[in-house]
Amino acid sequence: xxxxxxAPTASGKKPPTIYEVARLAGVSHQTVSRFLRKDPTMRPDxxxxxxxxxxxxxxxxxxxxxxxxxxxxxxxxxxxxxxxERVPTHVLGGAAAEAHDAGYLLxxxxxxxxxxxxxxxxxxxxxxxxxxxxxxFSPLGEAERTxxxxxxxxxxxxxxxxxxxxxxxxxxxxxxxxxxxxxxxALGHRRFAHVTGPPEWASARSRREVYEATLAELGLExxxxxxxxxTARAGWEAAVEVIAGSGATAVFAASDPVAFGVIGxxxxxxxxxxxxxxxxxxxxxxxxxxxxxxxTTVRVDRENQGRVAVRRLLTLLRGEPPVSQLDVRxxxxxxxxxxxxxxxxxxx
Length: 348
What we know:
By secondary structure, the protein is α/β, with parallel strands linked by helices. The chain is 42% helix and 13% strand.
């Protein structure tokens, strides 16, 4: 393995080389190379020594030199659907971090235009040394699939989203909402309401299904189901026009913005949250942590979602055993805060 000369840093000092890392760790430069490739067969003590040497020297792989040696680009492309307005920033952030940790750069590509234009854009990614792998979080059209089938570029279609970047499959699972509903039932709540998301979203349908199934299982009463659109306005209107007069003491809002609207609408009518009505949402929007009262919600670990997807693609690149998809139990977590409490008159 020959390492190309590197340019001095801004301080005038040349960056450390793989040979310096090897000397400090007391190993060969080939062993350091195995470390950088994340070779799973490395002995734990050797792995620790090389890792410490890399950290102590501040070593960073020379991607340009590696490309010249291996004829690989050390780049991964993430494909997004045509001109989607729903860019999964947290997912992409996790994907970029995982790629960087493995020595890759992440390019985000939107396949805009008609079928022929999308196929042409994809074919440009499949040229030699353009990208080493392709990750798509949503389904690909026939033209794109044809272009990929004729190439040798490893490709992973994760399937987390549909063509409009709406969550689907395990990523639309709402089973954890049942935990909050059971928690509220234990606090004396018997009458509930739900403000849904748009029915064309699988995640919205799943949240409504879990709401209805859990209430039926526990013998609880649904006083209202109001169709919403993920917005605070929908929550406000549902609260003022329906929920406030329904007798419900707990509300499941399909998203945090909807929950903010519900709380605001109830307060405008003099209904206190959580003394009179408990409210919880979904997604753990940062605003909810500082809202009054702080919002009970479901935190979705989208950064880990992106990391696992890239990890799965990297196993294809390396010819390693496949990594399993993210388990929904690792994806969603209940966050209890002050917007939920005992039902009126209930003594824990």
